Amino acid sequence: MQTKRKRELKWFPLAVGAGLVLAAAGLLVTVLFSEEIFPEYSPAHRGLQVARESGCFSCHGEGPQQGSPNPTPKSSPVRFSAVPSMFDERLTVEELLQWIADGIPEEKAQSGSFMASREANTLRMPAFADQLSAPEIADLSSYLALMQYRVSVATNPSPSKGEQLARQYACFSCHGELGQGGIHNPGSLKGYIPGFFGTDFRALTRNGDRQDLHQWIENGVSDFFINQGFAGFYPGQFFNERQAIKMPAYKDLLTDTDVTLIVDYLLELLEAGPLTAEAILEYRPLASSTHAARNPESGASDTTESPGVQGPLFAEATQILENHCLKCHGPEKQRSGYRLDYLEAAFKGGEIAQFVEQAAIEPGDSIRSLLIRFIEAEEEDPMEEIYPMPPGDNPRLSLEQIETFKDWIDAGAQWPSGRKLNPTQKIE
């Protein structure tokens, strides 16, 4: 019995040593191949997760529409306002960080009228400085900046033709806004669709090889990936067939020039790398008048009219909006989540515009503007998402008023920077 016990004790150190060696080897392999094993996320992608875990969307809503109702006391003229969307305003990085960390920017805290309005609301922005780490706050600000960018290009398209094509053909729907991280993809190598940056994208395209990028766009996959796999290590053919969401082929939809423009744009994003909040805000389209006003050093040109300057077409359109539309789509009430009292919200549209993926107001193109479809409609057709406006027994717009709207939109739908409208009809 003693002999057997001595044998067991003799082999015990060897077994422990072998176990430690195997563990060390496993750890070494994990470290060496971590980039090949784990997904790669941008600050904005991580910030989205912070927003979900911190309850941001429970009040603000997960989208450009306004958030939950925000009741005010009986003494207030507005009993139920709404928590604003996190994506409506064009904020600087400092303002974003102050909203998240302190619950209010320093400039707003010094405004008596803003503080009075804040105190009248039941729901107030909390401070997260003690709940979130500095990296988490930075990531969240990057996500908010990215969503602000997405809203801004809806009304001020990017001057980059490559980005316009990428947006038109829904590249960002899978790869994330500005290619900053894609969606979950069951069966794929890493379980997700990578963004247009970092080691994953470089490995899939042989470090941004132009020929590979052309093949991905035209054929939905590159010869290198099929034959050599991810970074020449994994069986590309196996994962390409196994993944649920496969890259579509655009060779019958895009011209060679279009593909080249998109490739040039993707290489710019690859070079820029994962974008921080600062980089995203600097990346805003130069046509954004608000960005130019807040960042004069950027040299951005303002394509909208200057503050206070009101062209005749906008003046006529304004009168129609204030007299007929803002009762239901103004600052105090927003049917179907649609506001018409300030530029970003009016152009973007509400729930229906988001559902049919069509802008409410398309500058320069009244035919593609959802607002024109509604004010011209004679009968309701829910199957086609057509709802005559104004609704019910409210007076319809005259042909002359409709033509005024069309002329204003076709002329570029100019809207003075910072100009907000006010309803002339009583809000009930």
Description of the molecule:
With 428 residues, this protein is mainly alpha-helical. The chain is 50% helix and 1% strand. Helix 3 packs across helix 8, helix 5 (93-102) crosses helix 8 and helix 9 packs across helix 15 (256-272). The chain starts with a helix and ends in an 18-residue tail after the last helix. It has a two-stranded antiparallel ribbon. The chain has 3 domains: 43-152, Cytochrome Bc1 Complex, Chain D, domain 2, CATH 1.10.760; 157-272, Cytochrome Bc1 Complex, Chain D, domain 2 (Orthogonal Bundle); 312-410. The chain has helices at residues 2-32, 34-37, 43-53, 56-60, 93-102, 106-109, 112-120, 134-155, 161-168, 171-175, 198-204, 210-219, 223-228, 236-242, 256-272, 277-282, 289-294, 312-324, 326-329, 343-348, 351-356, 370-376, 399-410; strands spanning 69-71, 80-82. A hairpin with an 8-residue loop joins strand 1 and strand 2. The relative contact order is 0.09.
What's this model, at a glance?
The chain is mainly alpha-helical and 428 residues long. The chain is built from 23 helices and 2 strands.
List keywords for this structure.
single chain; 428 residues; mainly alpha; Cytochrome Bc1 Complex, Chain D, domain 2; 3 domains; two-stranded antiparallel sheet; globular
Poorly predicted parts: 27-35, 285-310
Q: Structural class, from secondary structure content?
A: mainly alpha
In CATH, the homologous superfamily of the largest domain goes by the name: Cytochrome c-like domain
Second rung of CATH, namely the architecture of the largest domain: Orthogonal Bundle
Instruction: Give the CATH level 1 class of the largest domain.
Output: Mainly Alpha
- Mean pLDDT, to the nearest integer, reads 79
- Our estimate of the beta-strand percent is under 5%
Whole-angstrom Rg: 27 Å
Taking strands numbered 1, 2, ... along the chain, how are they ordered across the largest sheet?
A: 1-2
- Straight-line N-to-C gap: 94 Å
N-to-C SSE string, H for helix and E for strand: HHHHEEHHHHHHHHHHHHHHHHHHH
SS element count, helices:
23
Helix content: 40-55%
CATH fold assignment of the largest domain: Cytochrome Bc1 Complex, Chain D, domain 2
Shape: globular
Task: Characterize the largest beta sheet: strand count, sense, and whether it forms a barrel.
Answer: 2 strands, antiparallel
The total beta strand count reads: 2
Total count of domains: 3
